[in-house]
């Protein structure tokens, strides 16, 4: 299968890893009035892409992608440990663990990764989603930039889908927001690729607070 088709498959919302069930704080932001229409939703997700994804998970995925291709097991373990330690709420950690576990199950049933890579991933104990997705992307043999573009677009599409349901928004509004995010993704990927371990961060205080509050929110559609 071509690298492009593999990237399209991995970025598809039909990938059975449960991404549709998480809003990553959007539902809580709606409940607290921070997100309430198309403009505020676009601003929220744009900031999350730039301040959280580009400097955090997307940056780590870039480093994990390289580590998988170089079979650098020490780096892979260090990256996964960092992910587990820096999830800022119980919901965000459970999301990363569940999606990582589901994606690993998917990889077991396909020829995307080798049995040795699957075993290595499993040996991490609780392989987190960015690390497992990096394995799937590494196996595609796509260029790092293209692989991370697919990773980022999958995140953007999932978040827009969550916003459409929770704000709520119409489909046209959702597509306009997705268009804005798509235009901003290349810069986020470029930043992620050039961010080394000393500059990678997971510091999004408002997102963390809203995620923690979501755990006891009275009415919820999403798991985060």
UniProtKB/TrEMBL annotation:
Keywords: Chaperone, Cytoplasm, Nickel insertion. Its main location: cytoplasm. Pfam families: UreF (PF01730). GO terms for molecular function: nickel cation binding. It is found in: Cytoplasm. It comes from the Bacteria. Signal peptide: none annotated. Transmembrane segments: none annotated. One of its GO terms (cellular component) is cytoplasm. The keyword Transmembrane does not apply. Belongs to the UreF family. Required for maturation of urease via the functional incorporation of the urease nickel metallocenter. UreD, UreF and UreG form a complex that acts as a GTP-hydrolysis-dependent molecular chaperone, activating the urease apoprotein by helping to assemble the nickel containing metallocenter of UreC. The UreE protein probably delivers the nickel. PANTHER family: UREASE ACCESSORY PROTEIN F. This is Urease accessory protein UreF.
